[in-house]
Amino acid sequence: MNINNILQNQNQFQVETIDSFAFYEQHKIFETLLRLLANKQIRSTKTGVPLPCILHERTKIALQEIHSWTPQDIEDFEAGIFSEVESGLSGYEVTQSAPMSLYRQLQKEGREDLIFDRQIVPVPNAILNALACTALEKRFTRTALLSCDGFVEVYDDELETSAVRLDVDEHLSRQGFIVPIKEDGLVSHLQVFRHPRDERPFRLRSRSNIVWRLNPWQQ
């Protein structure tokens, strides 16, 4: 893997806006998104074995369809799990796991710390995309989100409703990851690597005229 790609891409682009307030708000949106996409897990400090405390995707689907849980309910429940561990359960710690394919490549070179230093997160699948964007809409206005490169408003013709989503193809969630690009310490945009050896990562941009089903598990 070309580690220098990630390092150089951190600051190779110039800020394209002269509106400092708008740029700072965009930075806050990206920073919040990165925290939401960070794949946290709980593991034993003795064995290093991860514990399955993040709800499985099918469990999330069942909670929403059968028990009418909202994405916020799921987010709050998982946050509660982590807070319990952090507040006193001895023998366990909360950590972040990177996309496994990237972690293995970096581990070979002794550079796995790059994942945390550069705030690298996995490309979300459709469900994580929905959960993260739902959480973002509780913190920021839809207008603010749509002003950031990478976010689009999607429509469901059957449900006659719309929502915000990160405009990234779900198949990239298998090996892909996102690297925030910074200018003077602020995130200016997001760079997407399709896989750890990707020599031509692309800048995440917003496409138009997207029609998705808002419930990604529906066929």
Structure description:
The chain is α+β, with helices and mostly antiparallel strands and 219 residues long. It has one domain (3-9, 19-203). It is 37% helix and 21% strand. A four-stranded antiparallel beta sheet has the order 4-7-8-9, covered by helices on one side. A hairpin with a 4-residue loop joins β5 (151-156) and β6. α2 crosses α7. Residues 12-18 have low confidence and may be disordered.
DSSP, total strands:
9
Dominant shape: globular
Domain module tally: 1
Task: Encode the helix/strand succession as letters.
Answer: HHEEHHEHHEHHEEEEE
Unreliable residue stretches: 12-18
The main pleated sheet reads as: 4 strands, antiparallel
Q: Gyration radius, to the nearest Å?
A: 18 Å
List the helices and strands and how they pair.
Blueprint: H1 3-9, H2 20-37, E1 39-44, E2 50-51, H3 57-65, H4 71-86, E3 92-97, H5 100-108, H6 114-117, E4 121-122, H7 126-137, H8 142-146, E5 151-156, E6 161-166, E7 177-183, E8 186-193, E9 202-203
Antiparallel strand pairs: 1-2, 1-3, 4-7, 5-6, 7-8, 8-9
